[in-house]
Amino acid sequence: MENQLKYSQANEDSKLNITKVGPKTSLLFFRIISFFLVFLIWELAGRSDISIAFPPFSKVFLAFIEMILSGEFVEAYADSLPPLLIGLLITVVGGVIIGVSVGLVRSAEWFIMPLLIIFQTAPVSALIPMLTYIYGISDTSKIVAIVILGMPLVALNSYKGIQSTNPSLLEMSASFLASRTNTIIFVILPSAQKMIFAGLRLGISGAFIGIVLAELLITPTGIGDLITYNRFIARYDKMFATIVSILAIAGLTLSLMRVFEDWLFPKEKN
Amino acid sequence: MKKRSRSTEVILSTDSINVVYQESLIALQNVSLDIPAAKLTAILGPSGCGKTTLLKVIAGLIKPTSGSVKVRGKEIEGPGPDRALVFQDFALLPWATVLQNVGFGLRARGVPKKERDETSLHYIKEVGLLGFEDKYPHQLSGGMRQRTGLARALTINSDILLMDEPFSAVDEQMRRKLQEDLLNLLKVENKTVIFVTHSIEEAVYLADQVIILSGRPGSVAEIVYPKIDRTGEIDLIRRQPGYIDLVDEIWSSLKKYVE
């Protein structure tokens, strides 16, 4: 169910891309407006005594600047980024390779699909502490957590993308005597492109959830520790600033992925 | 009914083709046909009678349960360079331009880009799409998409053109235009055309030989040879005395298969 929703969302996305009109600058303008609105509501909500644990945006923003200058972020991200990057790389490369090959080789389907579906639907956060028993308090635990959360999404979407190739295009390719390799390069992969990249975006989001969960639940280091510690000493502004920093980095990574997609598959002109 | 045997060269023949799906559903039963070279043959029949299945068997995309297809006396093993297919749903790559779509068959054959583009442009011009070579399928009308599909089939220079309800996905006026253009094109290109249609008018208008399939399971009910003179003005074809009579005749023999 959840998956179908995600697929249809990916389709919606692609439709939007086609019907998008007007210059890019106006789009940027509306994005900035929308951020501004969120910050404004946040500020108002924060000032209206909802809870002491919910500081207004301005306080969080100041804490954010303070943490950059004091080197708290640098220290925390020095711990978190290396396993995050390795985990992301495995998630992205491994997920696409597994998804695409299972999609192409029917005989691999029965073997790998159940595993992927189990990992995708299982309450992984409950399983993550178990990783400590296997890998101890280490970067390996973090990497495994990232991969478990991210890779099934990438693999499943890539698989679905490959499987959803229009059968008529496959017949066309066969009737024009394209080899299997040519069919994969010229027909199957381009047709799966949107779904694969939708999966990559979901997988990257999953990977970020994975690193935070791992650092909250297993190894009190890096950004997870920064969140826990600041909550513990009731510096909620700093806690939120940390969360915002993760959102910013996740957003940046997703944008980079978009740039990569556009570079790999240039958008249709006109 | 005007039946007569013709003494032209047979380029493609099928020999007692049977296609059975899932061990019980018989799609085609004992279909034996001779297709004359450089002529238009229409495969006509009620929907679900296996017309498209027959065309795909001839194309080599579906293996018959028994029986064989021979091109110039040689049994086919699958799709081949002697047959090019035009699809009902156009089967264009949505992410590729007209030029790239038309060049697909040549690309699959490893023809270098320069030569590929030259050949593709030649046929893009021939089907009347010059100026649209850099457009994407979603920017084209149904008729233009099918012209793209036709140009793609022409590039590989095969003798036999297989068309699966080529004009069914476009509106009536565009269909007439495409039919006329096809006839004009065939005056230039010496091709054997086998096309599937559910339109009696289309079959009589275009074809030299009309193969009528019965309802499920599909088998050859009748073969009709419209004696229509296509040498003159295309506009005059529908005014010929034999045209309406034959349409009526075919309808009365086809009627019993239509549920």
Provide an overview of this structure:
The complex is a heterodimer of chains A (270) and B (259). Chain A is 85% helix and 0% strand. Chain A has helices at 2-19, 24-47, 57-70, 72-104, 106-121, 124-135, 139-163, 167-175, 180-217, 222-232, 236-264. With 270 residues, chain A is an all-alpha fold. Chain A is globular. Chain A has a single domain, classed as MetI-like fold (Orthogonal Bundle), CATH 1.10.3720.10. The model of chain A is unreliable at 1-21 (pLDDT under 50). In chain A, helix 3 (57-70) packs across helix 11 (236-264) and helix 4 (72-104) packs across helix 10. Chain B is of the alpha/beta class and 259 residues long. Chain B folds into two domains: 10-82 and 158-257, Rossmann fold (3-Layer(aba) Sandwich), CATH 3.40.50.300; 95-157, no CATH class. Chain B contains eight helices and ten strands. A six-stranded mixed beta sheet of chain B has the order 6-7-8-3-9-10, with helices on both faces. The radius of gyration of chain B is 18 Å and the shape is globular. In chain B, 42% of the residues are buried. The interface between A and B is medium-sized, with 23 and 29 residues.
Features:
heterodimer, A: 270 residues, mainly alpha, MetI-like fold, globular, disordered N terminus, B: 259 residues, alpha/beta, 2 domains, 4-stranded antiparallel β-sheet, 10 strands, 24% strand
